Amino acid sequence: MNKRLFWKLCLIIATGVVALFYAINMLAQHTEEDMSMLAPEDRQQLNDWGQQAEKLYYAGNKAALHDWLETLKKQENTWVSIVEYEFTKIAGDPLNDIYTERFFLGRSVDWKIHLYLNYNPVMDIPFEQGQKSFLIKLPKRMRPGSYWQTTRFILKIILPMLLLSLLSWVLYHHIMDPLKKLERATREFSKGHFAVRVNQSIGKRNDEISQLANTFDQMAHRIGALINSQRQLIADLSHELRPPLTRLDIAVQSLQDQHNCLQNLERVERESKQIRKLVDDTLTLAWLENERPDIQLETVELVDLIDVIIDDAQFEFPQNKMRIKLPDSALIQQSNHRAIGQATENILRNALRYTPNNKTVEIILSEEPKEFILSIGDEGPGVPEDMLESIFQPFFRVDKARMAHTNSFGLGLALAKRQLESVAARIKASNKPNGGLLMQIYLPKNDKFKT
Q1: Predicted TM-score (pTM) above 0.85
Q2: Which residue, of 36, 54, 190, 423, has the fewest CB within 10 Å?
């Protein structure tokens, strides 16, 4: 597993948390700086008081200036004063005018007021004329940052909690939404809706959850196909069993009437063998499809195996001819002689069964770089083009023409295909140009079969 989801969550959480706290820190600093400045109307008020003090001072009315200062002091419950300052050079070069122009005995109204001070600073409003200033201890009502502690708590505690909760909610839905869809699909599948799938509904994800969804879809497809196959197999088996059982009932009833006893006994025996073969083939097919058994891997000499199968077929079908073209040797690694042999025997018997007497079945084994191709062609009636794939389905019959001289139940080719698939081989059916059916078996030379 590639742990894409793990790295995605690491990237989102690590980047998100670092970016979050960096942004909150910048926001807190900016907010603190803004809240440290005097309000514009308070700055204007302080400057107005400085101008009023300068005006009264230069008017020469000290009594009026004193009364105004006392009134302001009581009104704002603060400390006020007017001071004059002068620089005296003691040694060295003369002082530049810039020092006297920019000298402050208190804080300028344009400066920040530290929010963590436990006292109100003295504000300095210099006169426009001369080295004099109006000093006033900042009134309590003008102190900035009244709600700084609350704001700071919101910025550094409440806001991170809200944003992290939002991030958690997003991550939760990113993980849980597809899992909920998987849960719903599992519930629907358990109710018998075998066509349900998940992978397409979760979008273009490429992580552990999408792998889980893909695994579920593969499982659903496999189990659904197996269940549907078993249902069809049972239905077909039931359908195929009815005729021989009916004939058995008739034969038994005739025996009970004591008429044609020998003929009826032969009929009972024949129908019993057919039923047994039908049941055995059906159970074998179901076992191959459902259990996917482990096949013992071995080296197979195809030529020797085919020679044995041909000898048996010639003994069983002496009325047919066989044209055989085999190489001197054909070795296959990591395969199984039983699976290949039974499948080949089924296909060859099928070809001989449908080939008219004195007609020829052609058997050719050719070699390709990665595989051997075993071709078995008959001179029978062939198969309609649109049914060439269907003939490998259990209990499938083409028509009466191809079934006229056989008691087959349509399981031979289905069994052959499953047996070949068990050793990574494949089979293809096609019609010959001059009539008849051609079966081609593709047998890999060295590929280890995969279940």
Answers
A1: no
A2: 190
Considering only the C-alpha atoms of the chain, give the largest distance between any 2 of them, rounded to a whole number of Å. Answer: 157
| 53-96 pLDDT per residue, tens | 889 988 888 889 899 999 999 999 999 999 887 767 788 777 67
284-295 tens-digit pLDDT: 666 555 555 556
DSSP state of 157: I
In a domain, 61, yes or no: yes
Residue 153 Rama label (left phi>0; alpha psi -120 to 50; beta): alpha
User: Which one of 257, 276, 291 terminates a domain?
Assistant: 291
- Tell me if 163 is assigned to some domain: no
Say if residue 371 is in the same domain as residue 263: no
Count Cβ atoms within 10 A of the Cβ of residue 419 and give its class: 0-12 exposed, 13-18 middle, 19 or more buried.
buried
Does residue 371 share a domain with residue 247? no
Using the 3D structure, point to which of 98, 115, 142 is the last residue of a domain.
142
Partners of 298 in the beta sheet? 335
Q: Which two tokens stand for residue 77?
A: 């419950």
State the CATH number of the domain containing residue 410. 3.30.565.10
How many other CB atoms sit within 10 Å of the CB of residue 347? 25
Q: How far apart are CA 422 and CA 416, in angstroms?
A: 10
Residues 346/331, Cβ–Cβ less than 8 Å? no
Q: Tell me whether residue 171 is in a domain.
A: no
Domain membership of residue 386 as a residue range: 298-444
Determine the straight-line distance between the first and last CA of the chain, rounded to whole angstroms. Answer: 21
